[in-house]
Amino acid sequence: MYAARRSRLRERCEAGGSDAALVSGAANVRYLSGGAPAGAVLLLGPDRDVLVCTTDPFADATGASRPADDLGVLVLSPEGDPAVAGAGRAAEAGACSLAVEEHHLTVARHRAVGSVVPRVRLSDLGTAVEQQRIVKDDEEISSLRIAAEIADQALGELLESILVGRTERHLALELERRLIDHGAQGAAFPTSVGAGPNSGLAGHVPTDRRVEEGDFLSVCLGADYRGYRSEIARTFVIGSSPADWQIELYEQVFAAQRAGREALQPGAAYRDVDRAARLVLEAAGHGERVGPRIGHGVGLENDEDPRLAPSAMGKLDACVPVTVDPGVHLPGRGGVRIDDTLVVRPEADGGPELLTITTKELLAL
Amino acid sequence: MYAARRSRLRERCEAGGSDAALVSGAANVRYLSGGAPAGAVLLLGPDRDVLVCTTDPFADATGASRPADDLGVLVLSPEGDPAVAGAGRAAEAGACSLAVEEHHLTVARHRAVGSVVPRVRLSDLGTAVEQQRIVKDDEEISSLRIAAEIADQALGELLESILVGRTERHLALELERRLIDHGAQGAAFPTSVGAGPNSGLAGHVPTDRRVEEGDFLSVCLGADYRGYRSEIARTFVIGSSPADWQIELYEQVFAAQRAGREALQPGAAYRDVDRAARLVLEAAGHGERVGPRIGHGVGLENDEDPRLAPSAMGKLDACVPVTVDPGVHLPGRGGVRIDDTLVVRPEADGGPELLTITTKELLAL
Fold this sequence. Notes:
The structure is a homodimer.
Chain A: H1 2-15, E1 20-23, H2 26-33, E2 41-44, E3 50-53, E4 72-75, H3 82-92, E5 97-100, H4 107-116, E6 121-124, H5 128-133, H6 138-159, H7 168-181, E7 186-187, E8 192-195, E9 216-221, E10 223-225, E11 228-229, E12 232-237, H8 244-262, H9 270-283, E13 295-297, E14 304-308, E15 321-324, E16 327-330, E17 334-337, E18 340-343, E19 353-354
Parallel strand pairs in A: 1-5, 3-4, 5-6
Antiparallel strand pairs in A: 1-2, 2-3, 7-10, 8-9, 9-12, 10-11, 13-14, 15-18, 16-17, 18-19
């Protein structure tokens, strides 16, 4: 599997005139080799592919699996620079042109690489690996499915416990503990819990605000399962019955999120998915309060291509997992965020596959 | 305070021939401005200093404090590039030469910066800010002192609970919860708990291994308090009485750690501190098992300059907080790691100030 991914990338490199590539983005390295300890780089060709790192690349705890192929592994001393060593290896093996990831490599490391291989032409690999990662294979989707299931379980358990009086921070920590209880390697991203005026804020960092009667409570979490990261957000009302403004706002965001989900199909433009959800919120008078995009790809990174945004170029393919996550926040009052992870599927296969199945009814807890 | 730090950096830039600087390393930005949301950059001069970011830089939850000085703040749309916008601002203000952090900026962003300000000469700021951060002021040291106290409290509470039968993962999560209970913004770095054969491993990622009678249990944690990060590691024995090999190994690592601590004084070469601890372990036959360095600076980053390592160049100053953290791991059996955070002080002031005060006796739990 990893070898097949590297073959595809090699073809692309050769078409671009490079006989070797140095991949340094962490998720890209993991995608192509199965392991990615901090700072590791992957040298692709010109002869053998080599993972260059400073620590054992296949420690069990990260969920990385040792590739069953002919990938070489070169472990440097802890003070070594894998990019420099990888470039040196490429030059020894006769590379004439080495494509590097200029959007990951710092200027200083790029210069260090250039100075050890003065006769090798350095070119830009660009986002070739990121683009290759957009469409997922069955194994990747099944990891994401498990990651989504774990987040559903953690969230479901939280909802059964008493919430009033507890702080955002503690609820976030408890969710992260439950993710791990259910088999996650960790949280896919920092869990966000927002109560009352903090509800509905994207990426809100949990505070010591306690949950009170009448609050909106919004929760956004995800599990990392074998490196693959799910994402889900739900918003609840605390107490017996929601206020009218809460019901109205919830229905607006829910309608926008549904419109976004329904727009997911192979061939749909990224910007049209964004537009489907955004129009609903604009019609409700929340145009100014909607974030810059309505969803994004998920996989080895929590936030990867594609972006579902007004200015995004490109069209969805089948087997692309994305989030649809609109939200509206009313300053001082709070807000609503509803977020699912789905996989784009053709109509004939039943349309988009919903991975995060926690109910989206407005629950009063 | 932030303005004074920026003045010092400005003097250094001007001496290097640059009339403006673009600081993009996250901890560097925070050091100079008090706030550092993801992706923010700080433009230093040529006229006014400006923090350029895509989200509100002074959200309470991160513990960042709004500077009470004349720093300008420019908030871009979420899709904006702060480095590009900052460089544009520098050019408008008449900058001729802009120093950038080539070890933080990627090649792609550097090029984007260069293309928006074609008439400005780009130079390298190097690690000027990192060097300026090495010696801490009283306020920084008092944040570190609190961060160390919080980690001591979290660790102390864990030791009073039942450990046998619990997994490394759960112990690590519980420690992180307790850090937050005691007022930390979060863990300073991922908490490491290693039981039995995993004990003594640097940076061990907690697994589902359960704590058993007779195990060594090593724990490494730290608190983030207002951005400042403490570090402590201790190793315990589980059960009534340690085995002979455990007592022997513990005494060897303890002696090495003490030798390292005692070598901390203003004017001591970084490498001599490393050497003091390393010699003890070499004499005990563990030379091959000692890591590449015996300690490192702490502050806004968990692992910052100086490095206390055989090849490190430089000498300690007063008011430099460092760790002394030797460890030895015997494959298949386990090992010992003992780690303190201390501040270098002159002999006349009583020598190094120990911030992490949890006992280093070998406790049987």
